[in-house]
Design brief:
Mean pLDDT: 86
CATH superfamily of the largest domain: PPM-type phosphatase domain
Helix content: 25-40%
Oligomer: single chain
Shape: elongated
CATH topology of the largest domain: Phosphatase 2c, domain 1
Strand content: 15-25%
Order of helices and strands: HHEEHHEEEHEEEHHEEEEHEEHHHEE
Number of domains: 2
């Protein structure tokens, strides 16, 4: 009765695994149905297939492994889901190393749900043929109740872990959103529009603009390989580098070279960052642009002619030596009035529909050309809408999706002093 009351209490509590395991092995001993007891669990996440003794009562774990082939018995029970009863341990090959009087009878019972064996409870007595039917039935009933408690605890732990992760992701998402521009600078002759949508709670895409001296604008769109909190961490580093370095060394080759050295030190071996970075002179329309393994920018003229800008460059972190700088190519161009630059991450062109077909560069170019009579915000919205319709309006994106549209109106509008900016 006391054991049942304890079980009822445990079902109401949120207790840790160590406490539950200790209760599971101490109860058979305290109730007088065994002299010693221990519990084994197979944790695949540990990287080992061998079961582990997680708790014991009246016997040390080291001594158990000396006297008993715990792995063999545990694995047999996992396969058959049936108890193992050894009435004379001195003659059984799995326990014959035990000494007379130490433990001479052994009962092992699975703690199993409908789908899996959570643990195996071992109970031992110091005389042969010690486990009678009543003992076996009593320990079996206890094992069933223990299974319920362990499963309840596991579900509670899983729920708490999910809530913890959700809270961490919510915080990370809030931090990430704060890293992105909260407003765009108002500069003469420019019309800007940008947005970033994460495929998960937290993404690895980044965009930013920075007003420099002498009417210049630094701009960047970057994509950290992978998603989730680790990608967001590297995105935060990228933001710090951009805000600090672009003010000092804004030239694309110098900026990206420094970024590769600085960020490359912290990137994991399987992580890299692609980026397109440039400097626009708002007065003359001259642009210096370089891309580090990123999707090519699109130049669209006032007549709707569009072309991809395929300058060479390696992703940040792919090479930590001289090759990065040797390969990097800076493209110089001069915008004509009302020309557009379209910057984006691969989440745009690699978006897939229900048939698995990619949105692709051709559709992106067609969308930009069809919307060419619109301003920067209109072009931005047309791309987002077309991608949404292609993927399915209610379908999540397969990858983070970031867009930046830069429209230069020409120097003749300087006297008007107008500028349009938008964050979507």
């Amino acid at each position: 009765m006391a054991a049942m009351q304890t079980i009822a209490g445990l079902l109401r509590e949120v207790v840790d695994s160590e406490k539950l395991h200790h209760w599971a092995v101490s109860t058979p001993v305290e109730s007088g149905h065994s002299n010693t007891a221990w519990l084994t669990v197979q944790k695949l996440e540990s990287g080992s297939l061998a079961p582990r003794i997680v708790a014991s009562c009246n016997i040390e774990s080291e001594r158990i492994t000396e006297l008993c082939d715990v792995t063999s018995i545990h694995n047999t029970i996992v396969q058959t889901r049936e108890p193992v009863l050894i009435q004379d341990t001195l003659i059984d090959t799995r326990t014959r190393k035990s000494k007379s009087g130490e433990f001479e009878s052994l009962l092992a019972i699975p703690l199993s749900t409908r789908t899996e064996v959570l643990a195996v409870l071992f109970a031992a007595r110091d005389v042969v043929h010690a486990f009678e039917r009543e003992d076996i039935e009593t320990i079996g009933v206890f094992a069933s109740q223990a299974t319920l408690v362990l499963e309840n605890a596991r579900l509670l732990e899983a729920k708490i872990e999910r809530e913890r992760l959700a809270n961490e992701l919510a915080i990370a998402r809030d931090v990430q959103q704060r890293l992105l521009p909260q407003s765009m600078p108002e500069l003469p002759n420019l019309n800007l529009a940008a947005s970033s949508v994460a495929a998960r709670e937290v993404g690895g895409d980044y965009f930013d603009v920075l007003e420099l001296d002498e009417g210049e604008l630094a701009f960047i769109v970057a994509d950290v390989s992978g998603k989730g909190t680790s990608a967001a961490f590297y995105m935060a580093e990228m933001q710090g580098i951009f805000q600090a370095v672009a003010r000092i060394e804004s030239a694309p080759d110098i900026f990206l070279g420094y970024t590769n050295r600085a960020l490359g030190e912290s990137l994991e071996k399987n992580i890299f960052v692609t980026a397109v970075y440039g400097i626009l002179n708002c007065h003359s329309g001259s642009v210096s642009l370089a891309r580090a393994g990123h999707t090519p920018a699109i130049l669209v003229d006032a007549s709707g002619n569009a072309k991809l800008l395929h300058s060479e460059g390696l992703g940040i972190g792919l090479d930590r030596g001289e090759l990065f700088g040797d390969v990097l190519e800076v493209e110089h161009l001069t915008l004509n009035p009302d020309d557009l630059l379209v910057l984006y991450t691969d989440g745009v062109v690699e978006s897939r529909n229900h048939e698995g077909e990619e949105f692709g560069y051709d559709r992106l170019l067609q969308t930009v050309q069809a919307a060419r009579n619109e301003d920067a915000q209109g072009v931005h919205d047309a791309i987002r809408q077309t991608v949404d319709e292609f993927v399915g309006t209610n379908e999540p994106y397969g990858d983070d999706l970031t867009l930046m549209i830069i429209e230069w109106h020409g120097c003749e509008t300087l006297s008007s002093g107008t500028a349009q900016t938008s964050l979507s």
